[in-house]
Amino acid sequence: MRQAVLNLEESKIREVANAGFGSSDVLPFWFGESDEVTPEAIRAAGIASLQAGETFYSHNLGLPELRQAVADYTSRLHRPLGPERIGITSGGVSALIVAMQALIDAGDRVVAVTPVWPNLTAQPRILGADLHCVPLHADADGAWRLDLPALLAAITPGTRLLVVNSPNNPTGWTLSQAEQAAILDHCRGTGTWILADEVYERLYYAGDTASGAAPSFLDVARPDDRLVVVQSFSKAFLMTGWRLGYLVMPADMTPQVGKLLEFNTSCAPVFVQRAALAAVQQTEAITPRIVAHLKGCRDALVPLLQAVPGVRTSAAPGGMYAFLRIEGFDDSLGLAKRLVAEAAIGLAPGVAFGPEAEGWLRWCFASKDVARLGEGVARLRRWLG
Amino acid sequence: MRQAVLNLEESKIREVANAGFGSSDVLPFWFGESDEVTPEAIRAAGIASLQAGETFYSHNLGLPELRQAVADYTSRLHRPLGPERIGITSGGVSALIVAMQALIDAGDRVVAVTPVWPNLTAQPRILGADLHCVPLHADADGAWRLDLPALLAAITPGTRLLVVNSPNNPTGWTLSQAEQAAILDHCRGTGTWILADEVYERLYYAGDTASGAAPSFLDVARPDDRLVVVQSFSKAFLMTGWRLGYLVMPADMTPQVGKLLEFNTSCAPVFVQRAALAAVQQTEAITPRIVAHLKGCRDALVPLLQAVPGVRTSAAPGGMYAFLRIEGFDDSLGLAKRLVAEAAIGLAPGVAFGPEAEGWLRWCFASKDVARLGEGVARLRRWLG
């Protein structure tokens, strides 16, 4: 087997979760997923499609009506665009690797902002890229910030691709519109493509944008900029297990992505796309409730954590995670395993997301029952003290 | 964008199909798909899962109970093996590209037997492989044969991977067990991996094997041989649109594939896997009927075609295609387009599968209504003269 594949790390989150198997009383906050089932109206659309016998192959780039609906939805959130810039994929992660397949040759220089969801750094490695990571930094208050000049300096004329995830998993850090404009301007000069993972855009709580969504590169880019935005139905519609996402890209890239989709997954199931179509068409009835609930989760959890002696964390503007550090514990994997075994709390170790997050812990607050979060903090307090 | 991606050919099958849009009276035999909906019992299992709220992430390698069921099913058809050798994927095509990601570095020498489904030769190109094709040859009777010494000579000690599809799409050519043993023995000597696309194994009509399935590399290989077999639920269970497949591989490769699945698709939807579990558990009630019907389709179509003056074709031992040549027509793409426009018959051009198949046409005989096949031949006769 390839050395590049053997070198890929197993998930450290899963390593912690495995340590908790068999103890059913663990409160699991480790995975990036709500514990709430997909809304009934969305499931009903998928079921109706199956009952109608829609079990055949479909277009590589997705059902035309879904591409149109996604284009309309994106146009409402950002700038007007058409379905010729949309490609439907089998999940956000498939969108990411297909975009990278379109852009990265083995040996190409790729820059990524970290800490980040490990898939974003593993994928360039699978494709043989020369990966350079630019770290975010944590302030004294527990909020994470970008050193913009350092990022721009790393994006050299020879850099093929910038990979950036904002709102960021795990830190909640979110690019400002001004930072996006500066990055885009710089990348125009170096000829660098931007691959922006914006799957948490709707889970944004700052209230400082017209649409309510997080600032997006789509708000500042021209249609022909070297920009690919990755989206997913997982977060804003509670559809993690359906495996559906999409790409927003320059129109002349779409046929190339269509070819690559044929060779990666061929197409997404029609009944999954029908469910997603129902989701997008009913987003006003579905998403604001989800976002309001998640904001409530965040606003319940973070003050409780901040009141625990020795804990440092900040209310993130976006995403569904609290990212925290506990004084005196520098080994996040060891700490997470102890918390599972000794306190029955399941958290993700920061080191899973990059070395600069060593010592930190990620706590997913997407909990249907907000009281679970309080119970988790109570367990942490008991264990610490 | 990458030159390797720009160089990938658009599907010539789709080019023909596009030429037929707007004329609803075309009989479509161009795609590799039955026109029969997935059996009700399979759809019901998927629907029940959705109703039960199984809408969350799952294991990268698939549900443990599905992996066990697939291992049992494979053990019945071939040699005993356990679930540690099975990985569930989002379609056969995803299984193929993930296997190639595990095995091929850019620049590696890859040998493929052609003509073949174009995805099998496009995927190594996407990964930057150095691809060498070994052509099959058509006999005077229209049956295709392998030049085994030529194939073995192409598999040099520096060859990383052999890609072979048997029963073959488009020709129906099927490797004998003796040929598989000779190829395996040779590849053991050169250290070459074998990636065997055996998705048509159940659609086998020769009746010369104990299981009824086509000869498989799994019948002759040891558990630790460098062999990866790709399978799909599409053909034997009429589940094309569900996008579910699996890999059979050496046990020590499975964790590596698990990592790659995380970075390609994460996991297949649970409700799709529940449907597949029902399919495998009820295969005796489902698959023999499908295979018998397809054999009936083949045995109806091929003699009718052979009776058309100037047509050369042979009853294929496996698959769901008649592969034919019409005297006096050497440009298969041009011919296929004319047949759509002038005769309202939709066939796939042979050149889509490799240059050695130029002049040939692929006719998918997976038709619920056998009379459609006769109507197609009648149209061909009228058009020819």
SSE blueprint and pairings:
2 copies of one chain form a homodimer.
Chain A: H1 3-6, H2 12-19, E1 27-28, H3 40-51, H4 64-77, E2 86-89, H5 92-103, E3 109-114, H6 119-126, E4 130-135, E5 137-138, E6 144-145, H7 148-154, E7 159-165, H8 177-190, E8 193-197, E9 227-232, E10 245-248, H9 254-264, H10 270-281, H11 283-306, E11 311-313, E12 321-326, H12 332-343, E13 345-346, E14 348-349, E15 360-364, H13 371-384
Parallel strand pairs in A: 1-13, 3-4, 3-7, 7-8, 8-9
Antiparallel strand pairs in A: 2-10, 5-6, 9-10, 11-12, 12-15, 14-15
Helix pairs in contact in A: 2-12, 3-10, 4-10, 5-6, 5-9
Overview of this protein structure:
Two copies of one chain form a homodimer. Chain A folds into two domains: 3-37 and 285-384, Alpha-Beta Complex (Aspartate Aminotransferase, domain 1), CATH 3.90.1150; 40-282, Type I PLP-dependent aspartate aminotransferase-like (Major domain) (Aspartate Aminotransferase, domain 2). In chain A, the strands form four sheets. Chain A has a seven-stranded mixed β-sheet, with helices on both faces. The first copy, chain A, has a four-stranded antiparallel β-sheet with strand order 11-12-15-14. Chain A has helices at residues 3-6, 12-19, 40-51, 64-77, 92-103, 119-126, 148-154, 177-190, 254-264, 270-281, 283-306, 332-343, 371-384; strands at residues 27-28, 86-89, 109-114, 130-135, 137-138, 144-145, 159-165, 193-197, 227-232, 245-248, 311-313, 321-326, 345-346, 348-349, 360-364. Chain A is 39% helix and 16% strand. Chain A has 385 residues and is an alpha/beta fold. Chain A starts with a helix and ends with a helix. In chain A, strand 7 (159-165), helix 8 (177-190) and strand 8 (193-197) form a beta-alpha-beta unit. The interface between A and B is large, with 62 and 62 residues.
